[in-house]
Amino acid sequence: MSKEERPYHCPDCGFCRVGGAENFRHCHDCGMCIDKSLFREHNCKVGKYMSNCPVCQEDLFSSRSASHEMPCGHAIHWHCFRDLAAHDSRCPVCKKTAETHERMLPTWNAMAMGIALQPVPPDLAKAVTIVCNDCEKSEENRAWHFLGVQCRHCQSFNTVVERIAMVGPQAHEFLMVADPHPLHLEAQQQQAQQQQQQTNQRRYRRI
Ligand SMILES: [Zn+2]
Ligand SMILES: [Zn+2]
Ligand SMILES: [Zn+2]
Ligand SMILES: [Zn+2]
Ligand SMILES: [Zn+2]
Description:
Blueprint: E1 7-10, E2 15-18, E3 24-27, E4 32-35, E5 67-69, E6 75-77, H1 78-85, H2 101-117, E7 126-132, E8 138-143, E9 159-167, H3 168-178, H4 182-206
Antiparallel strand pairs: 1-2, 3-4, 5-6, 7-8, 7-9
The structure holds zinc ion (5 copies).
């Protein structure tokens, strides 16, 4: 049995939990042992843990296993959270990102990079309305991408397409202005610079 899985007795909970005593601290308001690393920021709510784990449905308070609070405020077993994180980074209850945005940022930046390197061919272009699961804001006229659409408000890729407004080459043309792909944006800027240089040259010639 690893150190992490060794049971410890919490006198305030009144029974033994698994997870290593050094990793947890009992909160008297929540009436529950909380992850030490999250203790300072956790949202205290009486009765928060009077619920079932959304993964295995076991009652969280009476469970011997340690609980974890996700940024959305929903509670889950620590071991169920780790299993979940291996294949989905969203809370099973509310679909918000189950990790902090700071921890997700490298992943999201990598996705944005992937999008920057792979423009969607005009035939597959779609202008869509997205809703962000994290900040709940919606945005119209965004360029769909098979890797996902990044929320402009909170940087999250945890967004869903709510409506498809336009498809194909027509959408491609439209998005060149509404939500240009980084490569198109670069091309547009170069074009604008060239035009500016040409007008400057013309001006000089006139002088
Ligand atoms: Zn406790
Ligand atoms: Zn608390
Ligand atoms: Zn569970
Ligand atoms: Zn949640
Ligand atoms: Zn957002």
